[in-house]
Amino acid sequence: VDVPIFQKGRNTSCYKYVGEVIKGPADTLIDMPSYLGPTLRFRKGDKVKIYFTNDLPSEQSNIHWHGLHVPEAADGHPKDQIGHGDIYVYEFEVINRAGTYFYHSHAHGATATQVYKGLAGALIISDDDEEAVDLPRGEYDIPLLIQDRSFTKTNKLSYFGGVDGFFGNRILVNGKPNAKLSVNRGQYRFRCINGSNSRIYKLGWSNKMPLVAIGVDGGLLAQPETRPYIMLAPGERIDLWVDFSHMKPGTELLLRSLAYAGFMPHQGMQNNEHGGMGMSGKGMDIVDMPSKKPGHLMRQSAAVDILKIKVGKNSAANQLTLPNKLSEIEALGIQDADNGSTPRVIRITQAMDATMTPLFNDEPFPQDLVSVDPDEIININSAQYFSITHDHGGMGVQNMTMMSMAHPIHMHGSSFQIVKRSFKESGDHRNYATIKDGFIDAGWKDTVLVVEGEEVALLKRFDTYSGLSLYHCHNLEHEDNGMMRNLLIR
Ligand code: C2O
Ligand code: CU
Ligand code: CU
Fold first, then answer.
1. 4: CA distance to ligand 1 center in Å?
2. Which domains, and CATH codes, for the chain?
3. CA 473 – ligand 1 centroid, Å
4. pTM
């Protein structure tokens, strides 16, 4: 599959990946004019060649294939960004399993602004194993790329992210505000991608029906998981099975983000999540008050509508039942890890200076973009056991309605498995209770949300490709500010 992708600065506030691709019928919602790039559809085994031209007048850029296991030169490492007028060829074989993936800019220090302005799109992989399962297809299989944005009075994108992130006041699905979808009375697969810079959603249905997850970052789960709500952090994907067959024609319902206890900004930082109200008084409570006025701000923990659905009178010709077995997932074992039961610890820390920017193990991303510490060198064809810890030692915010910031940690290369998630005894269990049932830790993942007080252990294999790889926070402002490190596989 040859896909030429051009990057264009359309006006001062918006960029776009433009390319010729073969479009499927399910792209109706995604192909309405928007700033997003085309939905790319690959099949496992495809040899892909993408000719990328940087047409931006004055910025370096590149493309990263989020969740795809590709050679170093095709991974979109910041060292491989190109300048205006240059061409970069991404060449790789699709070796990932079928699933919902994502592509976006990974420009050095400019990922947040470039993704915000539009340099992102959905990427869907199919394969034989998935095709053997009776799942919704064609117009019943819909990608939903969810992002928050703010607009000026003249409808230009406005960006005001800081060290803590960016929180816009409008929710867009596939680049559309006030997104609506008419459905038939049948079963759907909604492939939700959180393409937001920083906003963490707590997905739920307005009619309180449970959510049924059939897939996560790296494709189908072994079996469906049913939850009252699901947390979806930037970079994560969740595939939902939604059955409208029993609903009356004319039924309206909403996919929403439900209110939760929220995450506090870093101490001392002015944060736009709180509408500039600082950290006391009204800014702290959890009110359901999304604002749609330009310039108004919306807290990420506030309830907000994502997608409005209307059930039509037609019944799907092909009625499906939710399979109780979706795929085969071979569990990685700690005994297979190179480092056995002594994990490589990734501590989420904060810079000791006034910025208090979040970092890994107190170290920012190297200035030369390529250095690695001795403990960041990994043997090729090994499995590694990691433990990510997030303990800022308490921020003195007991009894307040917010937790310290949470970080979606993403690793490039092959997907990993989460082996354990634990929350410390002395943590804020009351606030944690508003989100803790929303984690789906099964299946293959490439991004995991780590909340303050948690320790998340994971196992990951490093095979097929040697060279430089990355892990970083997928809060894109955190990433740009140094919450990213290299790994060298050799
Ligand atoms: Cu989606 Cu390195 O990121
Ligand atoms: Cu990635
Ligand atoms: Cu972060």
1. 21
2. 2-127 (2.60.40.420), 138-315 (2.60.40.420), 334-489 (2.60.40.420)
3. 8
4. 0.90
